[in-house]
Amino acid sequence: MRIFAVIGLLLWAVTASAAEPVLDLTIGGESRHFTREQLLARPDAATIEVAKDAIYGRAMTYRAVPLAGLIAGLTPPPGTVIEAIATDGYAAQLPVDQILSTDPKTVIAWVAIEPADAPWPKLPEKTVSAGTFYLVWTGDQAATVRSEQWPYQMAKLDTQPSPAARWPELAVDPALPAADPIRSGQTLFVTQCLVCHKFSGAGSADVGPDLNRPMNPTQYLTAAALHALIRDPASVRDWPDRKMQGFTPEQMSDREIDQVIGYLKHMADRKG
């Protein structure tokens, strides 16, 4: 009987260990793995105040570790970005220089850790919190970090080639002038839309539908309807388990939404 008790205890330990949330970090092929308790026990863990959390929409306090500290000793390859993958398939492309910044006069990226015994509030219009691991920003220029560059429920951070190099399907007509608004729309699309949607098969995300195959939304929605859909999806159509919440004017201005629509229209016949 004692043997069976020992086996049962070992099985419980394995199950408990498997259930412990883990954040995977891979930089240039070198990997590190951090459990919640390991992160909370780090000497660089700190209590931080986020004056305006981009996802919660208000001031928040977190126990967090600087992401630059987790990457210390690893070198991101030239020309790469840090891709943050969430448990629901969300995939954000993050500039390396911002991730590695430790200057409070610009921005500092932190991995906020949700304590097991003190859950965070539920996200607006959702039934879950931002934990267990959530990338938040502090610093004088934190307000300039786009809303979609605050990935929550993170599971993995990995270096990848820049979106332009990795997915040529995203490219606009090279004949377009450098200052063409369509190019600005492309940049906004990669930051704000590619986190949830694929485009002509390009992208890592697996949350929403592909926005160019089989049809581009500019081919079946008017510009006004598409603008409204991006701003507030429920104002155009609603459906069970809708995940898209839309973008507030703080997150994307009307002009920026129109630039994204201009990019989509330009790409309607460029399906890769």
TrEMBL record:
Residues 180-268 form the Cytochrome c domain. It comes from Inquilinus limosus. One of its GO terms (molecular function) is heme binding. PROSITE patterns: CYTC. It holds the Pfam family Cytochrom_C. This is Cytochrome C. Keywords: Heme, Iron, Metal-binding, Signal. Residues 1-18 form the signal peptide.
